[in-house]
Amino acid sequence: MVIGLLKIELYIESSRSLKDKRRIIKSLIQKLKSKYSNLSVSEIELLNNWKKSIIAIVTVSNEITYINSVLDKVLNYIIEGYNYQVVKSDIEILNY
């Protein structure tokens, strides 16, 4: 079993309040879940910061190449987003 974790820090320039940020992050999470099956997505840090967010995206498979491919596609999709900027991203692969 292989677990892939993508952790992304986002900067949301257009956000003027926590309500704005939560709307943008919720929309992103819903789009990711509908576009890519077999993903778990959640905001994990900076919950009360209205300009920044850290989200985690996890997927499980039996092939490392599949995990890398999916997480690369997800990262590219997020980078193309217009409501936020990717400040930092880390991919971690865990083999069990």
Which descriptors apply to this entry?
Alpha-Beta Plaits, 96 residues, 4-stranded antiparallel sheet, alpha+beta, 2 helices
Low-confidence stretches: none
Q: How would the global form be characterised?
A: elongated
Instruction: Tell me the CATH architecture.
Output: 2-Layer Sandwich
Number of DSSP strand runs:
4
Number of domains: 1
Mean pLDDT across residues: 94
Q: Report strand %.
A: 35-45%
SSE topology sketch:
Blueprint: E1 2-11, H1 18-35, E2 40-45, E3 52-61, H2 64-79, E4 85-95
Antiparallel strand pairs: 1-3, 1-4, 2-3
Give a short summary of the structure:
This protein has 2 helices and 4 strands. With 96 residues, it is of the alpha+beta class. It has one domain: Alpha-Beta Plaits (2-Layer Sandwich), CATH 3.30.70.
Structural overview:
This protein is 35% helix and 39% strand. It contains two helices and four strands. It has one domain (2-95): Alpha-Beta Plaits. With 96 residues, it is α+β, with helices and mostly antiparallel strands. The N and C termini lie close together (5 Å). A four-stranded antiparallel beta sheet has the order 2-3-1-4, with helices on one face. Strand 2 (40-45) and strand 3 form a beta hairpin.
